[in-house]
Design brief:
Largest sheet: 2 strands, antiparallel
Strand content: under 5%
Structural class: mainly alpha
Membrane topology: Multi-pass membrane protein
Oligomer: single chain
Keywords: Acyltransferase, Lipid metabolism, Membrane, Transferase, Transmembrane, Transmembrane helix
Pfam family, one: MBOAT_2
Helix content: 55-70%
Number of strands: 2
GO molecular function: O-acyltransferase activity
Protein name: Acyl-CoA--sterol O-acyltransferase 1-like
Distance between the termini: 37 Å
């Protein structure tokens, strides 16, 4: 374990040095091809660094921060976009280092009233208590209905993820003294698959994928298919990339070849999301292609198909 901790320190020290390099390059170059080429070795380095770790509790967060969030945000920075490209005011070195690889985004505009920027201690206390029941539940899982066990996995995953990311954001907020945009928006209150993925679940990843995948693909698709159909390939491409990144994270953790189940899961959800609602760029209303009852059946069948 001592050797693993030393490797963990070396991995993050290397990452911080690489991000300092990106910060410096960003100050002396303009967005475009030259900045992209300068950042490309850093992106490749971040994909390599988690391979030096083996402990799940270290490689899991490290791969998420360094191999998922950081490369996408650095590529956005190369194009002069994203949270690292703020000019009002420009990010300090400390802010740049944290925003590059942590699931945080400094709030610049007036907060959306529909999003809770700060959750009450009671909210986190309840989720902590729910997560604490994981041990007795799984110790006696043979006596519990298998479907309830599967449901409990989802609940515990959500509670653990939100509590962990909230802790990271709280420490970063205390260090930087700034406010961040919310990371989750009570996903258990989602009323549809669009509401869940687009406005409630893991909002930092959602916004990052929207800027790096959805927007470019939609821009190209608009020229090919027109503005009405452009969201179709853009949505599917976004979910495809999300699935591939999930496969990558699980590869880092388990060091086993991917079975592509996660990719299939996200592609199916992307297909469902794309055909469920299309919002033409010139319209303010959503066009429903599927009745509500069929929408629920298709979504459920997608989940069950992949779960099998």
């Amino acid at each position: 374990m001592e050797g693993e901790i030393q490797r963990f320190i070396m991995v993050w020290a290397s990452a911080m040095l690489a991000l300092c390099y990106c910060h410096t390059i960003g100050r002396i170059t303009k967005p475009g091809k030259s900045r992209f080429l300068a950042f490309l070795p850093v992106v490749l380095l971040f994909l390599y660094l988690p391979l030096n770790l083996h402990a799940v509790f270290l490689v899991g967060p490290t791969s998420f921060f360094l191999s998922w969030l950081a490369p996408f945000r650095i590529l956005l920075f190369a194009a002069g976009k994203g949270p690292l490209s703020s000019t009002s005011p420009a990010l300090s070195l400390q802010q740049f280092l944290l925003v590059s690889c942590l699931p945080i985004k400094i709030r610049r505009n007036k907060p959306d009233p529909s999003l809770k920027t700060h959750k009450s201690p009671l909210n986190y206390s309840v989720k902590s208590l729910i997560f604490a029941t994981a041990v007795p539940i799984f110790q006696n899982k043979e006596k519990i209905n298998p479907n309830l066990i599967k449901l409990s996995y989802c609940v515990y995953l959500y509670c653990a993820l939100e509590l962990f990311l909230a802790m990271i954001a709280a420490m970063a907020r205390a260090w930087l003294g700034v406010e961040f945009e919310p990371q989750f928006n009570e996903p258990y209150l989602a009323t549809s698959i669009q509401d869940f993925w687009g406005r409630r679940w893991n909002l930092m990843v959602t916004s990052t994928l929207h800027a790096t995948v959805y927007d470019p693909v939609r821009k190209v698709s608009t020229r090919v298919f027109g503005s009405k159909l452009a969201p179709l390939p853009a949505v599917v491409a976004t979910f495809l990339v999300s699935g591939l990144m999930h496969e990558l994270i699980f590869f880092y953790i388990g060091r086993k070849p991917p079975n592509w189940e996660l990719t299939c899961f996200f592609v199916l959800h992307g297909r469902h999301r794309a055909f469920r609602n299309i919002r033409p760029s010139s319209a303010r209303i959503e066009v429903d292609f599927l009745p509500k009852s069929l929408d629920i059946k298709v979504c459920t069948s997608d989940v069950l198909l992949v779960a099998r």
